[in-house]
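Lab meeting notes turned into a lecture example. A postdoc, R.K., suggested we walk through two folding results consecutively so the class can see how the record format repeats. The first protein's sequence and structure tokens come next.
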Amino acid sequence: MKIISNHITLCIILLSLFGCSQSLIVITNIPSPLVEQLGDTKVLVKYDENIINYQFKSTNIEANESPWVIEFNDSHKKLFDQVLNSFFSELIQIETMDESLDDSEYIKINIKLDKFEFLTPSLASNDNYSVWLKYTIEVKNEKTEYSKKWVITGYGEQGTASLNQNKALINAIDLAIRDTGANLTIKIEKEMDFIIGTIN
């Protein structure tokens, strides 16, 4: 297990273009949600490999377009670290869902990236890049047999009027990640009474 720090420094977006493929690196800025933190509440979180280090590779989308390689690295993980650390006093990353603590004052969260999709202007027949993200989040407490599955999504769209295609797509990804963070925050606030009930 390793303790995840509350202090996360995130940078703005970097991008690059290499050879015949279009390569982008996602490093996004996730603001900390302004929410009330639960006192002395531990969370054991397991991240799917695609959350920890995700690379997307496309085949040729259109005959006149080069393939895309998008390096998310740990951008997804930083998103969830930021949101969860805003709500809970201690976030502990685990390797498997079988890991546990000696006391029962905690919940487990398992997070998976289910889907990353995007549309280019040529496919959408407009001037916008559109991005969709979909995650499955399982929240459970084994002692109380509480178990819930959440589906959290994010959407981002960016026009190309004043931007090159790389910058437009990376901005759309950034918006989708931020939208995911906002939707997760809303979901946790909505389910907070149930979550508190599992650890009391």
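The second example is placed directly after the first for contrast:
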Amino acid sequence: MFRLARLAPDVRQLQKDSGRSGPPRGGATDRAPREWQPRGGSFARGGAAGAVAGAATPFRGRDSRGSRDSRGSHRRSDRDDRTGYDRYGSEGSKREWKVRGMTPPTSTNPYTLSQRVKKHLDRYPDRMTRPQVDELLAIVRDVPPDMATAPVWNLVLARMGRDGYYSAMWKSFNEMKKRGTNATSRTFTVLLNAFAGVAHSGVVNDSFAPASKPERLTLERVRRVYDLSQAHIRAMLKAQTKNEGSRDNLGVAYPEDHDEMPTLLPSEEVSVWPTNAYLKFLGRYGMWKEMEAVFMAMDREGPLAPDGATYYTMLNTANNVDHYHRSMKDDSLPAIEVGSVGRAYWDQAVRSGVEIDDRMALAALSCLAAGSPADQRVAEELIPRLWDLSAPGQPASATGAKGKYSLPRAWDNLPTFSLDVRTATTLLSTMRRMGNKSLVAHYTRLIADGPLARNADLALLRVFIHNLAFAGDADGASTVLETFQPPSGSDGWPIDVYLSVMGAARWAADWDIALSTFRRMVALPPTAEGGIGKYIWKSPNGRPQDVRGRPWVPPRPHPVNPTAMGLLFKTALAAAKSGIKPLRAATDIYEFYGPDTFFEVRTSAGVVDMNAGEAKHWDLSRRDYGFIGDAVELARDLEVAAERLAETPRNTEDREKHEAMRRDAARVVRIWGKKVEERGDKKPRPRFLRSVE
């Protein structure tokens, strides 16, 4: 209940002069004439110093509607004078704002300041510009230092790091310390996560870019922040009583007049989060040896022991380093026995009792799948146990049954995870690294024939096709291609999907699947095969909808390329039981498009005419030589096909035509094949960036 204060003497005098009683109306008579308006904090006429009545009222809080006098004190607002309400009375404010969580609307405290910062951040959901960042900093700079606590600064630093303003973030961190605000464990975590490229501790660092090492200054700052965090944690460990961990030191913001504020213990500042964030930073750049040193220095038990995020970061980085070292042939990263390393970290995580999720399990399987045959057998045994699937050779009802390989007893109580689209995509992709075709085919068919396929996205459908093609099941891969409408709509299937099906058809010597897939990929007109008319798209199943009830959408065709044409020739050569007919059909398609379509390669230096008879010494990139290498591979297939056709000609002209075709292809192989081989030992230059998904 509001308490009305006694009218001030100056107000009563104004009422007496005006001949009426009661408070003034509309505030017209309580204001001085324009020439009497205060300047410089004084209320005087003709320059004489005169103090406003009531100016000696003690100041409590900060009123944005008041003004300062020459001595730096605050006057009450005009509205308070008009109503006669003593806003800052000794008892009035306590009763007015007694409700928990409420603060005077004009006051500034850590709680209201944090709300202002959040409102500013919500106003710019996308990356902020530098002027907008300056506005954000102005919010915390324009208040007393004790109001901008560590949680408020954490909001500011986190957003600056997320938007990539690392230098400004570092300067703001130093400014925070100069203003007397003590950093917390969360502050250090925010800074380290920002340098690691993640928004917060709950986000996984999917990027891996060892080719782009961090700058020396950045590395020094990150190590400095990590050292400060460990010193802060050691200081908190020394605090034995809860009173030693004051709210001011921890920088926690609470609403003004908040009763029963919980006392924070120093143990709440003793957290493994800064270490996890530092490991994410090291893992992003493949700094494996330093990661192992940090991990070995961690406690084995207690609040500073490794948790689930720690083990996942180690397993994921080990897999990334091994994959990069093998695929890029780069000796800058250490060679890791990823199978044994992953097995050791997984075993320690299980025995330590940390929470194991499917993300950590997939990271461990990725390491085991790339390891030795013994490690791969462990992965083969873990898959049915973790996801309750039937192993190869077992009935579908025998889900999660033990296989033929024994596992440690400590692993008997492993959790069972549900299989969703994302997990199935990663799991099936990981199996392909094991090289066991029967295992890959079994689990791929098991999931593709199950209810999960109805919700499959483009990534999972692609994995279905790639895995079946890898296992040599050309018919199964082609069935998936013609059963599901891809979620990409009119973009259709990516070109790698078509090439994967054609590759499986090549090894299966299935000319019909290879030709039908090629037709759909490039929208091959009938004239290319000796017919008439244009290409007319038809739904694969002859119905307007696919198996999931989604309408078929005619896809945009892909341009013909040397790789697809080469697979068509390889399949025709492999289909010897069909006679010479597939080979003639492939040659007719090649002649329909013409040699220039395949041997005039567009590169960064211009168009390279491989039929010109000489290889110009252009400065071509590795990607350019990749395109040229595909054309050389097609020339080898064309040379063999032309030689075979020249041996069984239709007539003399047909023989001469195929002999000329063979000579041209042989010249391309002789000239450009040597150039490609010379570039084969060059190390790759492009930045390596891959996702764990």
